[in-house]
Amino acid sequence: MLLTVPNLPTHVQLYLIQMSDRLAILSETVRRNQEAANIRTATQYNAKSQTKIPIFKTMDRVWLYSPTSKGENLSHKITTKYRGHF
Questions:
Q1: Has residue 4 been placed in a domain?
Q2: Which residues of 26-59 are buried (b: 16+ CB within 10 A; e: fewer)?
Q3: What is the Cα–Cα distance from 77 to 71, expressed in whole angstroms?
Q4: Which range marks the domain in which residue 70 is found?
Q5: Which tens digit of pLDDT belongs to each residue from 35-77?
Q6: Is the pLDDT of residue 1 over 70?
Q7: Is residue 77 situated within a structural domain?
Q8: How many alpha carbons lie under 13 Å from residue 48 in its C-beta half-sphere?
Q9: Structural domain contains residue 46
Q10: CA–CA gap between residue 69 and residue 80 (Å, rounded)
């Protein structure tokens, strides 16, 4: 659509009108293609199982999430957040 036309108009206003029509069609086509690509990408991403349900058996060792930091100090960055083995 953006290729040059062999018969270019000699009037600037006429050329702008012709190009604005072409660019409107082109931008609409790009918008529709982008929406279709977004839908395909979302479908593929959502098809993958993101979380696995944990299966615990008797006597399995597990960690207990237990954040111990309180207040606004920076110790929460270096303290352990899990206790265990339980």
A1: no
A2: eeeeeeeeeeeeeeeeeeeeeeeeeeeeeeeeee
A3: 13
A4: 12-84
A5: 999 999 998 888 886 777 888 899 888 888 877 656 566 666 7
A6: no
A7: yes
A8: 5
A9: yes
A10: 9
